[in-house]
Write the structure tokens for this entry.
Amino acid sequence: MPLPVSYMGTKRQLAGHVAEIASLSPPGPLLDVFSGMCAVASAVAPKRQIWTNDLQHFARAVSQAHFCSRSAPPSRLDAAALVMGTYSQHIRAHSAIASGRLASEESALKNGDCSALNQTYDEWQDSAPLPRRELSSGVDAVLFRDTFAGAYFGLSQSIEIDAIRRGLDDAFAEERLDTDQHRWLLLALCVALSKCSTSTGHFAQPLTAKTPSIRRFAKQRSRSIRDEWLGAVELLKPVGGRRWRGRNRAYLGEAVETLKCLQNETSHPAVVYADPPYTDDQYSRFYHVYDTLIRYDYPESFGRGRYRPDRAVSTFSLSSKVTQSLGELIESSANIGADLIISYPTNGLMANSRDLIPALIRDHFGNEPTVYEIAHQHSTMGASKGVGKHNVTEVIYRAFH
């Protein structure tokens, strides 16, 4: 997996199988229409050109960086130097602005006082936002300070996140970073968020401080976003050569709509890989914090999870629409003349998928699919449904012309 973060429904265990099946298709690009963290695309690359698609801005940024970048990430030392001036100024200014709140949080964490800490965070939610600075160069960066402090991150950590983001934006505006380098360093910041958050491995909702786990909670709140960010910079690198990456594509959108749009283009993928959501969980609920960091667009937020009101919704996670959506996906793939590989578990949201998917393939491809059954494990992302992982049979369907 290119980016070292937890990701719901990752296909790392299946990626090798899918790559082997894809090798049976004619030469040409592979389009992964639910690319996520690009496990399958990484397994196929660089034997084919890689086209990716995803509903989430964060996931699209991952594929753009790894498969389409002309520039590699800056070094750790260069990254630190690029943001240091802006970062230091931001930290000093906002540490002064938020000095009272920072002192309250620090005292409660130091004393292991869960009641005081949770009361402090509740009060922040009901209080007026902290002041912003008036800057000649633009609006002050306070998105994470004002939205996520006291939820997934501490106030000091949230100020750090804003400081790094502002430093990167300043470096980009001054042409000290190009678009690819700016994206790489934002993705490294996403990794830092995953390392420092007080959550169960995703952002569906934050953890609350409780007495049995207060030491671990306090330890997470004391982790340095900057240190984790600089450590993550060293982990990132593009896939394949620059010339090969220059011919890849990264789409943002709903899978069926992307396939329909390709019907109007002169070049098409040789094979489409589809790993649609298989539960009624909307993936955007688990990764909205990453999306907000990438977009940095100051959305309104609601609920304990501080959700965006415009989170992406997939029809493949709606029981009333999943069969129709899969049918349209299969039809659209056939219409562009591509082979199609679908992976779907026997216990997925689509009832009787073992019969319905082959029937849909016969309708639109005119022949029987090749079917592979593979033992697999699905994560429940923090054991929210009783167990951390459970065994399933993943069925892979190959449709061809």
Remarks:
- The beta strands are 30-32, 50-54, 134-135, 138-139, 249-252, 271-274, 339-345, 370-379, 389-399.
- The domain at 12-55+250-280+312-399 is CATH 3.40.50.150 (Rossmann fold).
- Residues 381-388 have pLDDT under 50 and may be disordered.
- The longest helix spans residues 76-97.
